[in-house]
Amino acid sequence: MLFAKVPELETLNSRLLPDLFDLETLEEGRVVRVLDLGPANSHTFNFLNQFNCHLRIVNIKDKLCHLNSALAEDPELDIGQIEQHIQSAFAFQGDESFDICLVWDFLNYLDVPSLKVFTEVLLPHLAPQAKLHGFAVLNKSTPLTEQNYGVVDAELLSVTDQKNIQLPHRHSQSAIKDYLRGITIKQSILRTDGRLEMILQRV
Amino acid sequence: MIGSTVKILGEIISDENLVIEGELEGTVTVNDYELTIGPSGRIHANINAKVVKIDGLVDGDIQGTEKVVISKSGNVRGNIQAPRVILEDGGQFKGSIDMGPGIAAQAKSDVPLSEFASATKSSRTDNPAPAAVKSN
After folding, report:
1. N or C: which end of chain A has fewer CB atoms below 10 A?
2. Which residues in A128-159 are b (16+ Cβ under 10 Å) and which e?
3. Could you read off the pLDDT of A9-65 as tens digits, one per residue?
4. Which residues neighbour A93 within 8 Å (Cβ) at sequence distance 6 or greater?
5. Which residue of A49, A52, A59 is in closest CB contact with B85?
6. pTM of the model
7. Chain A environment of B120 (Cβ under 8 Å)
8. Residue A57 to residue B96, Cβ atoms within 8 A
């Protein structure tokens, strides 16, 4: 009898997460607004249940894959069309804004022009001084397999490696600095797997 | 229990635990009790109950005054307000959630839950509620 292979669940200690989830502020009871670009995750739900939280789950991956398919079919896709894809991926409701954005690996789904548009679409929905967490893959020799993440606690992530799914793009730290206009890299750590873990902040 | 061959268009108000295995379009209010959307349940409705457990499909807004549980077979698209929201591994959700101790405090007061996150824009009130009930 054959069984489907279950993706491996691991945990990842993060020295950057405490800056993202400042427990003192969270425990004051103010509503923190979190935009999670990944799929809904049981660990993240459990963690955020402790606080007054508005959590928006976007699960942007499928829409970004559609964008990449469209770009593969028509490399001359204009900026307006790219923006339509990205607006549709976020599906923002009115002028909602967020204090924290969990970007995860999704910068690696975007080529350079799309990265610029991504920032332009996201920026108006980030509160002043909003923080973002994400990973970039810098080294071309680093395997670009997709990972799904969750927040276990303020220092620990859950990671599910989708070993057969490749990420389409990679960006250097300087490219991220240049193309994420209005957002700065506040802290970064190069992890042993070759991913650059980053805390970004709206300036 | 509402069986898997039953289709309802309209409003359900229940003062006891309720299990829906069929199809519903409208609103469901289960005051102070538990509502379970079974694995074959297909709900296009706004839901209000003490505890909401979803094993099937829900497209609509959910208010749980105690908790909302999306099981491994559950799939929810909409907005949730509840003090505690549990997602089992495999469960799917897309939308917004207002959760935490503040929601519990609001649920015990006379203030509508919808006013909890006044800084956010998360209303979805586009579900129809025609007053017709149809049983197959």
Report:
1. N
2. eebbbbbbbbbeeeeebebbbbbbbbeeebbb
3. 789 999 999 999 887 777 777 899 999 999 999 999 999 999 999 999 999 988 988
4. B121, B122
5. A49
6. 0.87
7. 31, 33, 54, 96
8. yes
